[in-house]
Amino acid sequence: MTASRQVEASRVDGRGPPSPLHALALSTAVLSGVGASLVLFVQGLAMPAGERSAFFVKNALGGATRRVLLGAVGLGALLPALVVLVALLVSGRRVAPGARRAASVLSPLLLAAFVPTLFDALAWHAAPLPYLLLLSAFVLAAVPLVTRAAEAWPASLLEIAAAARDLASPRVRRALPLALVLVGAAAYTAFAAYFTILTHRRIATSAFDLGIYDNLMWNALHGRPFRVPVLFGPGGGNYVSNHAEYAMLLFLPIYAIRPGPETLLVVQAALLGFAAVPLYLFASTQLSRAASVVVALAYLLYAPLHGPQFYDFHWLPLAIFFHFWLYWAIARKRTWLVAALVVVLFAIREDVAFGLAALGVFLFATRARPRLGLVLAAGSAAWFAVDKFVIMPWAGSWWFENIYGELFADGVRTYGSVVKTILTNPVFFASSLLREDKLVYALHMLAPLAFLPLRRLPLLVLLAPGFAFTLMTTGYAPTLSIAFQYTTHWIPYVFGATVLSLALLRRESSPASAARRRAQLGVMAFAMLSHSYVFGAVLQRGNFVGGFQKIEFRMTEGERESWRSVRELVAMIPQDASVAATEQEVPQISTRSTAYTLRSSPGAVDYILFKRSHLYGDARTSVADAFKTAPYGLLARRGDDLLLWKRGHESPETAKAKQQCGLP
Predict the structure, then answer these.
(1) Most C-beta atoms within 10 A of its C-beta, which of 99, 279, 315, 552?
(2) What are the beta bridge partners of residue 469?
(3) C-alpha distances in Å from residue 337, one per residue of 253, 328, 527
(4) Where are the alpha helices (DSSP H) in 153-206?
(5) Cα(227)–Cα(220) distance, rounded to whole angstroms?
(6) In this structure, is the dihedral angle defined by the CA atoms of residues 588, 592, 597 and 603, taken in order, positive or negative?
């Protein structure tokens, strides 16, 4: 092919070098787009919150205001074009390289118009899918734009930044990043401990699940491990049939210092907060210290972490702390520590072993640590099978496999039946995954991390636990909500995968890979801030949901009085007495051997505590059954709502109180 024909072909397919005039036109178009976008950005910030939300969601804007905005957008687009035109008239075509560099450096601002809406919790908290799709599109567009800007950034400015960094001594540069992470971890721990205890004192925690775990720990502390009347009622049962959470025994010395639900809440806050430290240490084995700080602080802002933090207490989220230490130990080849951490993780809950098996497969398949990976995969799979299908059924039956109900084959309600469906009817299985709530959940987990865990095919293996224990489930809403503890099946793995995804870019030595790595890290930080603001608990607290309820971050005087009243009545109950209470009151009385929830009939317990406003449905039926079983008298009351009853007690107020409550 002749040279002239090559030029013609390159013009047709668009791969040839643009002419200076063409390049200048493209640069001018980009700069005009930046100008228009900045106008929309300023307009979005200037609008009051309610009006901004209505504008973004319903396109509500007055005609006159819209005309003004349209004119401002036009002016914002025109001004950069005029500047380039004047420069062209003054300097001629010599302006083209400068315009091209300016367009490259400023090109990320093309997305500025979308920033105000990405930080509008009022608009999107109740409509997550449009927000998550917008955030995803923003992330996918921002990475190449920021990469281009990083490549075009003046070298002199990078040199100035490097010189400023070098002003600190090597010792300070080593210590400062870890110090920042420690401060962040401590701040998060204090924040979460204070407000989860506040939630408990607002009588906003429940028997399911804080009351269960407190009652479980009290019984274990007094020589009755795995006995939990709050869960099983008078019929009794072995807690291992529900979840194999043997690790609770390791925390008994801490619980013994001050037995009660608030101790559990503090332990949960501390382990989730300070999990940022081993995450930083692991990341620093793969990335720069600065990048490791960004990843660790992003973890603390991650909204799917905040949901379980504020949903009572559970052992499963505590696995995150030990997962991150395990990653560090593997990276540092601390074999003894790896073994110890694996044992602890096995003991936290039965399904954690499934995730460790996936980690082992990853280490083996990628040849990162093939021998360790093989041992970890085989050992974890074996323990999961023994624990889940031998030990737990021996302890009793439970309903948890029903969360896969739609996948049961031929009416057989077992995990093996689910596997049969997957193998014999993959079309039906695939259709069970293609649902809006599952898309929303997956985007919640991945979009704030700029989809970094998906950037390399081998990293998908690490997403197997989240897929198996959340996306595969059917008909059980908590497994598909970031307000519950099941996000734990994603969190340690997606952050581990994020670190490794960035590390793989770091190993590429080209300047382009360095720019792309900085771009992905910066876009991830932005996406995390946006998502955390809309759905998290730290950056804004007006719409946050933990568990089944919206969390309030203040305590009214009426709530303080209710708390004092509950504590006064609970103080009247002997420690060795059996007590039944309504759902929200159970965590206030669960620090004892025998405590029941009024979800079901408690039998002839010594004391019954309830609020009239909570006495409905099963609770009302249970109290009526108890009153028919044995005589109860009103021992004390606080106001018209809170009442304490004692079996065999007689008081002149009893008849009136029963009448007020509609009880026999």
Answers:
(1) 279
(2) none
(3) 22, 10, 34
(4) 155-166, 170-201
(5) 7
(6) negative
Q: Is the dihedral of CA 290, 295, 300, 302 positive or negative?
A: positive
Distance of CA 442 to the CA centre of its chain: 11
SS (H, E, C) 221-277: HCCCCCCCHHHHHHHCCCHHHCCCCHHHHHHHHHHHHCCCHHHHHHHHHHHHHHCHH
Counting every residue written for the chain, the total comes to 664
Residue recorded with tokens 């640590």: 369
d(CA 596, CA 229) in angstroms, rounded, equals: 6
Strand bridging mode 642-647 / 549-550 = unpaired
Residues 93 and 231 in one domain: no
Strand partners, 581: 597, 609
Give the Cα separation of 616 and 582 in Å (integer). 9
- Residue range of the domain that includes 213: 170-550
Do the domain assignments include residue 151? Answer: no
Does residue 435 sit in helix, strand or coil? coil
pTM over 0.85: yes
Residue 263 to residue 271: CA distance in whole angstroms: 12
Dihedrals phi, psi of 607, to nearest 5 degrees: -135, 150
Among 118, 147, 178, which residue terminates a domain? 118
As a dihedral over the C-alpha atoms of residue 538, residue 544, residue 546, residue 552, rounded to 10 degrees, the angle is 90
Q: Which residue has the higher pLDDT, 456 or 397?
A: 456
**Number of domains present in the structure of the chain:** 3
Q: What is the C-alpha separation between 108 and 506, in angstroms, rounded?
A: 22
The DSSP call for residue 311 is S
Residue 238 sits in the same domain as residue 206: yes
Can you tell me the distance from the alpha carbon of 551 to that of 536, in angstroms, rounded to the nearest whole number? Answer: 11
Q: Do 575 and 540 share a structural domain?
A: no
Query: 408-445 pLDDT, tens per residue?
Result: 888 778 788 888 888 899 999 999 999 999 999 999 99
| Residues in Cβ contact with 79 at an 8 Å cutoff, skipping those fewer than 6 apart | 35
Rg (CA), the chain: 30
- pLDDT per residue over 604-627, tens digit each? 999 999 999 999 899 999 999 999
For residue 174, pLDDT over 90 is answered with no
3-state percent helix, strand, coil for the chain, nearest multiple of 5: 70, 5, 25
SS3 404: strand
**Integer Cα distance of 653 and 664 in angstroms:** 14
Report the interhelical angle of 276-284 vs 289-301 (nearest 10°).
150
> Measuring CA to CA, how many Å separate 155 from each of 150, 158, 251, 657?
10, 5, 53, 80
